[in-house]
Amino acid sequence: MAQLTIKDAECYKEQLQSDAQFLCSNQRMDTELVDSLVLQLNRIYPQILSDKEACKFRSLRVPTTERLCELLQYLHEKGDDACYEFYRALHIQAEDVYFSLPTRIRQREMTDSINVADIPERHVLNDRGPIFFLSCFSVAVAIAFLYYYGEGQRLRCTEAFLHCSAVRLGKDAKDVFVSYVEVGKQK
């Protein structure tokens, strides 16, 4: 059987108990789906659902909702592993029913609320605002103007700055950038 984490193993039984009413009243849980769930549990995990029990839960003399309620009660009594395997079978056989279960909706809402609470803190780059960005951008533009349009001899501080900034470029771009700066020095 699949390994369950401690947290999951404790709650599959409880989840099945809270989802049972929804499953028994859901129109999508028809005879064909219940039969395929019983067959999957019987064939893959005969220790959960034996042949005799599978025949009992597939009997067409008993209404589908009654068979389903008995199956859910049986799996609940069988334990957490049986409940987990039922959820797995339901996920495989009918994803739309699985994702519309009340416990799955609650879990999605909880993870969404946790993720929404974390987003502002995680994605804030700085709290300085647009004025800070504009001032940094202005400094960069000023250095570029000084370098390219400086009268006579270029400022020596800008050459060192450009050599340092070439470190973060790719190999080809770095070679072109450094050679351009060195040609500028020779003039």
* E-strand count: 0
Average pLDDT reading = 76
Largest sheet: none
Helix and strand element order: HHHHHHHHHH
Q: Hey, roughly how much beta strand do the residues contain?
A: under 5%
Rg, nearest Å: 33 Å
**Tally of contiguous helical segments:** 10
Report low-confidence residues grouped into runs of 5 or more. Answer: 1-9
Structure overview:
By secondary structure, the chain is mainly α. The chain is built from 10 helices and no strands. Helix 2 (31-44) crosses helix 5 (80-93) and helix 4 packs across helix 5 (80-93). Residues 1-9 have low confidence and may be disordered.
Task: Note the topology.
Blueprint: H1 6-25, H2 31-44, H3 51-57, H4 64-78, H5 80-93, H6 95-99, H7 102-123, H8 130-149, H9 156-165, H10 171-186
Brief summary:
Helix content is 76%, strand content 0%. It is mainly alpha-helical.
Pick out its properties.
mainly alpha; 76% helix; 0% strand; rod-shaped; disordered N terminus
